[in-house]
Design goal:
196 residues; mainly beta; 4-stranded antiparallel beta sheet
Amino acid sequence: LDSSQNAGFGNSVDLDSDFIVVGAPGFCVYPGQWLQPINQVGAVFVFDLQGEIHAPIQIVPDPTAEFARYGSGVAIADDRIVVSSGNDVNWLPELGKQVSENTAKLAVFERQSNAWKAASDVTWPGISPADYFGSASPFGISGSAGSAAGSIALSHFTLIVGAPGTDRLEADVGAAYLFELEGVVQQLIFSDSFES
């Protein structure tokens, strides 16, 4: 297992019957011996409970992007893993937020034999990085952008994704999205739908 200072290993975790998935959104990538590290790219580690648990599979985003904080959220069910990125790359002065372009989509991996292969990404039409799609908002009680975990949950083919920065009637009202990964998007839920 490669180590990286401030990797944040364990910032997000999930498990099913055979695998443990651990996010390390602060993980740095070292492209070469004499080159500067690419900071906070992030990584995901998959541990096989039926095999050599001390030798996990490491998943790093391709292409790598500095401060993407990949692995801020992880979810696993059956033979599928969903990964969200962080939200503190680019400063948007008009919104007063720092966001990563990667926060507008989630990466999906499917197990094929003994490997995890990238499948299609998950997103929603009109989603912006400032919505924190699948990522924790730095403005809530969950903590700062540097430490808060993502907001995704997966059960069989059903995926629920939080987007706490979504604007509707007011700023950062938030929303949740429900996806059927084997079918079509089913539902969009806004928090103000429950106000009396």
